[in-house]
């Protein structure tokens, strides 16, 4: 149940289509092949999710054994096939096994659960103890990770451009946050609402990494997907919240297209209206707020963003300015007329989004 009277289970991937499109056109079949197969699969999954939206997704009730302050995690192994969820390989009470991918997925689900519980007293993705399920070793050379409205799925990457998608904990947090958005504001996955949807996942994915590593705002790298790119790639991550447009500049992947301000806003019909590109603008606004306030970014800056996402006033069709105005109102409501409010106002002004 969401604030908008229902939820729309969408298919959300960490690697945007424009990156895979570039790879798919490469003359080397070792690079182009996995990218093409990933694009084909992602297109199929998006269609499947739309059908699920029309038909109605099954409601998932938290099992009775789930404790209010503990996650209930299950990891499955697809064994390089596409059937979900696959074979169960680790439950909540099981000890770590030899498969590092399984262990990382398990830990990442736990890190996400902990940030939402400890920082925002939210019990799992839906606030009601939703079990956290993930499938690893999905397909062969699958260059993505996704939330499909019900669970997490991780590819192993092709080893040439992308490595194992369980490596960056912020990728796990990013995808699970799509679930939080699904169960709260349910931001439409197109245009500015879609870019806000993606930005929410980047914001809280980054906060989950910072919380896990014990980093304050100045210590954090503000990168999304650091450690995911293979050694041959000229780049540090998929995206940068601190400096959008600088995450990679590679002869195969091309240059990071994210704008930091509305001056660079990209109008396109691809990628659901550029949701992974224009998300750089609200991403940068959040970074500016967190940097100005200092300390732990999940506290004041993160609290404002969380309050707006889950508070009920954010409509599913909200644009950047709608969201900005709500963050201003929330900063004033929670913290008064002090530095929190001033930081929020200044950040939106710097990225060119009206907030008054």
UniProtKB/TrEMBL annotation:
GO terms for cellular component: extracellular region. Keywords: Hydrolase, Metal-binding, Metalloprotease, Protease, Secreted, Zinc. Its cofactor is Zn(2+). GO terms for molecular function: metal ion binding; metalloendopeptidase activity. Residues 74-182 form the Peptidase M4 domain. Its EC number is 3.4.24.-. InterPro entries: Metalloprotease_M4, Peptidase_M4, Peptidase_M4/M1_CTD_sf, Peptidase_M4_C_domain, Peptidase_M4_domain. The active site is at residues 175, 276. Its main location: secreted. It comes from the Bacteria. It is found in: Secreted. It is an enzyme of class 3 (hydrolase). GO terms for biological process: proteolysis. Belongs to the peptidase M4 family. This is Neutral metalloproteinase. It comes from Streptomyces sp. R21.
